[in-house]
């Protein structure tokens, strides 16, 4: 059975990184490479390794959520089917 998503665990994993340095000057337009959606807040400077780690953590959290939803839908479908059978056979 997959583990349930834990928001506290997710927050703790994000806090494992050293505090990022903030940029004093306003952020200019992002380069064309930044077309992908970033998990880092604007104005925060992180290394590519840190950004990769953040993306991995965010992806794992999304995967946990999707698994939890799929499991909940599966359970709901099974309950619906069992209730339908009792009504039909009732």
SSE blueprint:
Blueprint lengths: L6 H9 L5 E2 L21 E2 L2 H42 L1
Antiparallel strand pairs: 1-2
Describe the structure.
The protein is built from 2 helices and 2 strands. It is mainly alpha-helical. The chain has a domain of 48 residues. The protein is rod-shaped and about 70 Å long.
Helical percent range? 55-70%
What structural class do helix, strand and pairing data support?
mainly alpha
User: SSE order in H/E notation?
Assistant: HEEH
Strand order of the largest sheet: 1-2
How would a crystallographer describe the biggest sheet?
2 strands, antiparallel
Uncertain ranges: none
**Estimated share of beta-strand residues:** under 5%
Number of strands: 2
The outline comes out as rod-shaped
Radius of gyration: 21 Å
Can you summarize this structure?
The protein has 2 helices and 2 strands. With 90 residues, the protein is mainly alpha-helical. It has a two-stranded antiparallel sheet with strand order 1-2.
Note the main attributes of this structure.
single chain, 90 residues, mainly alpha, two-stranded antiparallel sheet, 2 strands, rod-shaped
